[in-house]
């Protein structure tokens, strides 16, 4: 039988197929190959008359992420609060870059808009033709627009702890009844209320809730090689080949058309700042080290 892994916990894999969910074990061959099944994988399973069901093979993935650990996504919904905790544009940009690099469409959602306006942040991402929404749990503004983009797709919601991801998902899908946590006044971040990645069938596709993470957690996840990084910023694409020097890295070089677009306000400065920071992170990292984080 062929199905999709919807949850992994305690060494068991839960596979949805033929209108049922089967609790499975993975065959030892995966350990020998150094691979592991992920939530979102399409797999072939054997269902015996007695004993555990087994995962026999994993179909070819169209993509996968290290954080959150999920495969075959159409969209990555990156959730950020405007307050408590404050917006971290670099963290958002790192996640959008990881998504683009893996062939996943990034979508940005700003929550807690009852505490502060999100217009300036929404404008940044919409100006580069990226889907971006604002949401308030007081009047559920933005919820209908977010629901619309989920139809017939596999989407994962992710964000650092305390941004209101579970609150947003509970508004969109009240029947999920996901646990939510309070923000710590001392640490300025939320408790991790989601422990595992889990897929739920909704709107003709699937939506995934994922564990929250800290800024430290994301620093060395999904690192992108310096020669590939520019392709993870779609707003740079129209300037490729137009710079004064063919070897331009779009950092601070003379005659760089990307920098010129930043200075003219066509490309948001925060986006270019994130690009430079990400480039500096990986420029001196050896190839074998990069393979550990991608």
Domain module tally? 3
Topology pattern, helix = H, strand = E: EEEHEEEEEHEHEHEHEEHHHHH
- Distance linking N and C termini: 30 Å
Strand order of the largest sheet: 10-9-8-11-13-12
Low-confidence stretches: 181-193
Largest sheet: 6 strands, mixed
CATH architecture designation of the largest domain = 3-Layer(aba) Sandwich
Structural class: alpha/beta
Q: Roughly how many Å is the radius of gyration?
A: 20 Å
Tally of individual helices: 10
Tell me, what's the shape?
globular
In CATH, what is the homologous superfamily of the largest domain? Answer: P-loop containing nucleotide triphosphate hydrolases
CATH class of the largest domain: Alpha Beta
What percent of the residues sit in helical stretches (DSSP H or I)? 25-40%
Rounded mean pLDDT score: 88
**Strand segment count:** 13
| CATH fold label of the largest domain | Rossmann fold
Portion in beta strands: 15-25%
